Amino acid sequence: MTLNPTDAPPIQVRGLSKTYKVGFWFNKTVRALQGLDLEVGAGQIYGLLGPNGAGKSTTIKILMNLVRPSGGTALLYGQPVDQAATRRMVGFLPENPSPYEYLTGREFVTLAGQLCGMGGHELDLRVKEVLGAVDMSHAEKLQIRRYSKGMVQRVALAQALVSKPKMLILDEPTSGLDPVGRRQMRDLILAERDRGTTVLFCSHIIPDVEALCDRLAVLVGGRRVREGSVQQLLSAQVPSVEVVVEGLKLDQVKNLGVSLESTQALDGRVMLQVADADSQRLLGQVLAAGGRVNSLQAAKFSLEQLFMDALKDSGRASSVGGEINT
Ligand SMILES: Nc1ncnc2c1ncn2[C@@H]1O[C@H](COP(=O)(O)OP(=O)(O)OP(=O)(O)O)[C@@H](O)[C@H]1O
User: Fold this and answer.
1) Which residue numbers delimit the ABC transporter domain (predicted)?
2) What is the set of domains in the chain, with CATH numbers?
3) How far is the centre of ligand 1, averaged over its atoms, from the C-alpha of 97 (Å)?
4) Taking the mean position of all CA atoms in its chain, how far away is CA 128?
5) CA-67 nearest atom, ligand 1
6) Could you tell me the pLDDT band of residue 303, with boundaries at 50, 70 and 90?
7) How many Å apart are CA 15 and CA 73, to the nearest integer?
8) From the alpha carbon of 222, which atom of ligand 1 is closest?
9) ipTM score here?
10) For residue 201, what is the enclosing H or E element?
11) Would you say the C-alpha torsion 10, 11, 14, 19 has a positive or negative sign?
């Protein structure tokens, strides 16, 4: 079969499952993925968002052929993930990059380029270019063992970019970066998308996901619990309003008999959030109890709220980790 990256979606995952054997006798199992479906279209930035242990890295490791799935299929450009030719189209940033410490940043990125079949003057120029893009030109001659965590992260991203891949798969790309570094990383990812690169990345940093993604999937306990464009997902949230009440204490507000989404006491006032449908009833109850409504405004939909709702709806005792069977 010929490989034509324009024909098939860059990533197609169907019913993917992964069970790890754990325990001293390997007699327990952790279900890290439970029937995951994903499809990433060409040129998209797709985010995997989820709490610790949700299965994000496992998904990425399966796509990079570092972990074998227990069931289901994972295809890159329509091909099984173990095809070397497909793999060459992908630049990969692992969760905890551990590059050869005795190489300099420049040597490491050059080696990565050579492993992708690059060489000569073209490679030298490209290495210079990507080290500049990740703001590491100043340290390119320093051995990696002298780098800080954030510098290692930057040089690891440079190795992912060096071959001008058609797709980037990035596991926690902003981890270990300072605010300036996080901003640079975001700008780099957006610049890659602008030149047509498909990007899959995972994170639990909600502002990064919000700033970058065209689409996203929320994973909890190895299952996809939300999926769509950021706009679609936010507009599907139930509208609610923020109300500031004066003259009542927090306990009094909580006992008005109206279901409240959140409450916060602020020097003599109570700020609360309530579903739009309940807001009129709440106002009536506040006035009847002798309180005053200081302000009322539509609550801003946030990805954080969506994420918290997704965790709540998933009904798991803990949001952390896969399902452990003994
Ligand atoms: N090599 C392994 N052996 C046993 N269990 C594992 C292994 N790798 C992951 N797990 C388990 O699988 C589940 C999913 O882990 P995974 O690393 O995919 O989650 P994650 O969403 O990337 O989490 P984090 O945000 O904390 O990096 C967790 O319960 C984890 O303990």
Assistant:
1) 11-246
2) 11-234 (3.40.50.300), 238-300 (3.30.70.980)
3) 16
4) 29
5) 1
6) confident
7) 7
8) 14
9) 0.97
10) strand 198-203
11) positive
